[in-house]
Amino acid sequence: MKNKIIILLCLLFCTSYVSAENVALWFDSPANQWMQSLPVGNGRLGAMIFGGVDTEKLALNESSMWAGQYAPEQEKSFGKAKLQELRELFFQGKLVEGNQMCHEYLTSDNHSFGTHLPVGDLNIQFLYPVEGSYTNYKRVLDLDKGLHTVSYTLGNVTYTRECFASNPDDVLVMHVTANKKSSVSVEISLNLLRQPSKVRTLDNQLIFNGQALSKNSKGGVWFEGRVTVSAIGGNVQTKENKIAVSNADELILRIDIRTDYKNPGYKGLCKKTVKAAEKKSYEKIKKQHIADFSALFNRVSLSLGDKRDAYQLPTSVRLKQYRENPAEDPAFVALFFQYARYLLISSSRENSPLPIALQGFFNDNLACNMAWTNDYHLDINTQQNYWLSNVGNLSECNAPLFKYIQELSVYGQRTAQNVYGCKGWTAHTVANIWGYTSPSNGIGYGLFPTASSWLASHLWTEYEYTQDRKFLKDTAYPLLKGNAEFLLDYMVEDPSGKYLLTGPSISPENSFVYNNTALSASMMPTCDRVLAYEILNSTLQSARILNVDIDFQNDIENALQKLPPIRLMANGGIREWLEDYQEAIPNHRHTTHLLSLYPFNQISLDYTPELAKGALTTIENRLSAPDWEDVEWSRANMICYYARLHKNQEAYNSINILLEKLIRDNLFSVSPVGIAGAATDIFAIDGNQAAAAGIAEMLIQSQNGYIELLPCLPEQWNKGACAGLCIRGGGQVDFSWDRQGVKAATIHAKNDYPYRIKLPKENRYEILLNQKRINMVPDKHGLISISMNQGDTLNLIRL
After folding, report:
1. Which residues form the Alpha fucosidase A-like C-terminal domain (predicted)?
2. Reported pTM
3. pLDDT tens digits, residue range 703-731?
4. Residues of each domain in the chain carrying CATH 2.70.98.50
5. What is the SS3 string spanning 203-258?
6. Contact by Cβ (8 Å): 749, 788
7. May I ask the CATH class of domain 31-64+120-298?
């Protein structure tokens, strides 16, 4: 018996392992444009690498490179008395007049709002001893190592360059070698996008500084960057604003960029960082970087079935072939999933100064020139950027988000008081690094005070997955409580006294028809109801766990009982507003009322089947509407929605649509031409992150109080294995499957927790706790219950 267990467990772990070859992007030619280049990042500092032969380009990025400045008078004072006057218009059915009053009094100035900006390009021009064409070209991004490599042969010399962004040493590093001595000759220069800026040389360094300014905003951070050039063999010379290296055996660049955002000593820190990195050998920096990056990335492996020769194809070719026949290469979806985890690690680390912005950590210089800027959009995009973190075993990557929520809560207290005359804190749809929490200059997208509640909900999700009581006490509960205080003070009884309502507020960025007029603002749109419930309920649960604030708990319990229910429209779909209004834009990309389905669980197949049916109707109506606004994040939403509804083929088809229409050669998701005025495709990382979260949701779910494996498995993924995905309760799960379902599964308890597991009814399983067989009979729902202690292991083995 013991040998049988060992064999089966070995089978599980062997089949769940994914080799490094499977988690790499590679191309057989250099990038000709930004959307073909490949990213490296350490959570603060990053680059898009083009891999050119004649000229290598690194498009540089630093997360705090922001235009704009703090605006102390960011909102108009309104107050509770005026708010009550406004609400009376809505209660009297004067919605047109109410919307006009919202436009007049609840919009605000954002002249110094700002945007995230790219730094510019570091150019490395190569000078070769012979002329001719290159051969054997390959550029590779090893996801498990966070390492970018370019290699090619020119003449009889093979050149190799490696590049990575080290978190331990906090620098970008490039290493250039050749298999023949004295073959590396380059000229290094900068093409900065930020003006005014200055470039100078000092010894072996390029030093540049200036201010991050944008044409639409006042102010901006000051910055300094340094590029150190070290050569083994050969000569290093300065040429005005360039550095030339001739006839070297090896070349090493170490790069840092700092801004004065919360960092008055930024210049000295930049100098100190590159100096410290210069004292360490390239191999030591690389070794420490790989150890650091791999420790995070290798927590999760995923196999959805292999087509072995697929890995021999360049990623661009493989993507093209996948689009033609997805079923032939299911492993491509696994690669796409792991790429999202790679991007999250590269963009958001525990020591990052800021979380991932709207467009993403990497900046193509397009979104920041749009009217909507590369800011923090809190009406879905910022949240989507972190949907993968917990289930994807990267909870540490949430740290910058939580730090940012803490900052918003400070500024948001002023907004809550000035705009609404309320206690607590709030923030609206658009936010920046300068404490902007106001409704913005347009109510159709900006008048969304529960945006703060949506963002704060991530705090409770973190606790659900980690069971970190210290985090709950010190970080999550104070912020949740502050937002709950705002909601309790902000909500008002409707004229009947039956319900507590928010408002006037919006369902972002949608509108409804009332008396033949398209309007945005109303009392308690459905998304507000959903978000108010989430914050109040999670605050209540937190207070109970911590055994604090008994009177406040009672206030919350009373408020929860007076929230209106989620309702159906006459057409069977979920109401987007409190009343059954006609949608002004039936093809709109936003479906904020379906937050109730995902990421939350107020609509579920188990507990609210009629509402689940209504959610499906809503989805089908949106997708079938003429000119449905299919963008990267809304299509990723569909994967998540369908996964929760256990619609396996529909979820799978949405993955394929995303990969066919909304992903570019470097596997970046894009907001396509025409959406919100975009003249070209614009990179937005939310599609990568939310789609990967949806893929995880297809494989494992835990929101209903039990663990369910393969709840939404498409027939095309009929064989596979996964290891390392996380579940609510603080556990981690490894499992494998075939056409008959789950073959074996292992649950690792990271905390003491009473788990429930749903066993497939069509199979029988041997159950072992810490390798000892236990007899358990599933209940009528197929559930087994077992209390596990920290460090326990539960194995399920199909008989």
Report:
1. 701-794
2. 0.97
3. 999 999 999 999 999 999 999 999 999 99
4. 31-64+120-298
5. CCEEEEEEECCCCCCCCECEEEEEEEEEEECCEEEEECCEEEEEEECEEEEEEEEE
6. yes
7. mainly beta
